[in-house]
């Protein structure tokens, strides 16, 4: 008996705080005007996507002591944008990244519970930590936490927020015979949490929301991040680009679920993916090559190289060879607020690998940066892209994908109009929404249907 086809999950990432967007494209629009967000969200909902995702930028990035102006500078407040989008969409999930390092559980829980009410049960929270003191300078506590402490705080933050979400579960309506009115049990909303990170006692003032609590996303790829996702998340982002790497990651994370009393269907794995469509595969390859050159200008290539070398490389020709000097040791002082800096834990080894590749393939600085920064992409005709996406999902390399277009806000339109119908014809993607909440779209159970969901979230 053949294995039944898995249903594909699709979502859309409104790109920001990066150089994904091709600004030279005449169709490129604003990243702050609401009309851009509304167009993007309506396209995603028209295509019956599960959700829209917004990243968070808490400080403008700097390089060499100046604002880094080669990518999107800034991001409107996530809750404001998602709340506004709730009014112009009906079924699309609304996912936002909110930091656990500099926020407080009560405030975040209240905001997400409110968004879940306003949207009719479509809210999701991507729980992240902050890694750098540079961002921390914007906040009262300042500084930053070592990796193990960041995850310890994140775990307790989520446990605390979950307690707040669940504080309205149960309780009774009490009739006051003397006045003829009905009062809610005073215990509802009461919470007490005492731990290493938080010590709070009070009463949560937002009633139980349609989803019980928002869907929880997590984006870490380290061992700590994978364990955090297995214990506490409903979905995890992945950045693994190949079929084999995707299958290895998928198997690893899914196998961790059992020790937290969870089943495979309680965690969805959704890699981010770019895409380029053409009438033919050959045309798409040509477009893709040009897109990558537009995303990585000469100036961008030099700035990116400085993340690794930790030196001012402005005198180097981006169309010339890599520097023959080694990266400067110690803390990176060139790029501040750049996530890519932390990806290069051994700059000397990275420099050696890049020199070897550049020499073997005769690559310039710019060509090397283009080659090394290419993420998982679906390139081809609509039929080719539909087939490739389906192959990844059916092979358990992913449960679906979060698509990142290179044009905003209209870059999702062609995918919605050409690729989605092909997936629907194959019977692997919905033709209509079957539920009203994001949990419905992702195939996740309501927390109230679980025996004791808070136990799963306390696991460490």
TrEMBL record:
Occurrences of domain Luciferase-like (ranges): 25-395
Coiled coil region boundaries: none
Catalytic activity, EC: 1.14.-.-
Keyword annotations from UniProtKB, A to Z: Flavoprotein, FMN, Monooxygenase, Oxidoreductase
Pfam families reported in the protein's UniProt record: Bac_luciferase (PF00296)
Classification via PANTHER family: ALKANESULFONATE MONOOXYGENASE-RELATED, C2H2 FINGER DOMAIN TRANSCRIPTION FACTOR (EUROFUNG)-RELATED
Protein name per UniProt: NtaA/DmoA family FMN-dependent monooxygenase
